Fold this protein.
Amino acid sequence: MGPCVLELCAFRDDTAGLDGPQMPAVPTPTQETFPEIREAVRKLCARFPGPYWRALDREREYPTEFVAALTEAGFLSVLIPEAYGGSGLGLGAATAVLEEIHRSGCNGGACHAQMYTMGTILRHGSDAQKEAWLPKVASGELRLQAFGVTEPDAGTDTTRIATFARRDGDSYVVNGRKLWISRAEHSDLMVLLCRTAARDASPKPSDGMSVLIVDMREARGNGLTIRPVRTMLNHATTELFFEDLRVPMENLVGEEGNGFRYILDGMNAERILIAAECIGDARFFIDRASAYAREREVFGRPIGENQGVQFPIARAYVQMTSAALMVDRAAALFEAGEPCGTEANMAKLVGSEASWFAADTCLQTHGGFGFAEEYDIERKFRETRLYQVAPIANNLVLAYLGHHVLGMPRSY
Ligand SMILES: Cc1cc2nc3c(=O)[nH]c(=O)nc-3n(C[C@H](O)[C@H](O)[C@H](O)COP(=O)(O)OP(=O)(O)OC[C@H]3O[C@@H](n4cnc5c(N)ncnc54)[C@H](O)[C@@H]3O)c2cc1C
């Protein structure tokens, strides 16, 4: 019998390149972009292998050395324009960095916000604010990686936040509470969204909110209390309590009352970058699962010979590759300054679903060994689960699409 028709159809092997003689090369989209950056990130990550992350995970400690290495190599300042000391490479480069970090088994959650939180200042801050802060963020002298939006009683409905900044002389006086504010203990500055006018007194619910830059070094102990919240993953997340915290008026970004708009475009960047982390996670799981399925022998043959084992891994690969295309599309729109809310949301949804499916498949492929800490799979499994909830719950992505794209009644 000759080769079966499937073999003639030129399947492309991700690691070996194109098999089939007649098919044009179909590059894996996520491997094509920024190969030098990817290679450099992989080399850096190789210095931080599984045991490093496992030890931190056990104690819920911050990966200080890893973040310092990324900062020193300039990977966290790729989005900052050259004029302010960054490399000004754009969102595509940033997605490549984060994807490779996650594919390597590391976790960018400890510092990814250092890349994009500064976008609020870059796009909406005054020249004086940009000059004062951005070069220091680019060099790593200032850590701007805390983003204070979520509150316990507002949930996803950001217009319900109650943390209030009242004008008093040349300061704002802030009172309220925030929850799930990650990296607050490891940030020198924080982008804080608060109300400066009551919701009821504002023309629209999204009016009357403002963005303040809080200097955490001065604030802590002087009106700001930070309480770490232990979670199922090592994410340095916290609860914040504001009691008459004074923030100089010069730290107001843009115009008072317009803060909600300022953080929205930052959220698009965040969603695209988190989606890139999901692609990296999915790749990690697919790499591990396919390798194990080739090697592990049960009943006298590799488990990967069983379709019940092989097909879910192949499906995970399809989902990951499709999601990666969406991430690239969203990043390209963002870089071009085009509206990208729909694409950013879709990238985040399909990315987080692809990584979660790959995680579950990888765990299942490893049988009991998947549960052992030393394989790093259970850690990554816990880490990637977050992305279906944060930075936006997937239900809310669907609600956005249902209303804004498909014209159905608003459900939120
Ligand atoms: C580890 C971690 C780190 C985080 N870091 C930060 C941070 O640094 N800064 C920050 O500001 N926030 C942060 N968050 C908060 C995160 O963005 C929110 O948890 C997330 O947006 C969901 O909001 P919520 O938890 O209030 O859920 P809720 O809004 O209470 O929703 C609960 C559930 O109900 C569903 N739901 C709610 N409304 C609807 C609706 N209308 N239709 C359908 N389903 C609905 C949601 O999908 C969700 O599954 C973090 C969260 C976690 C867990």
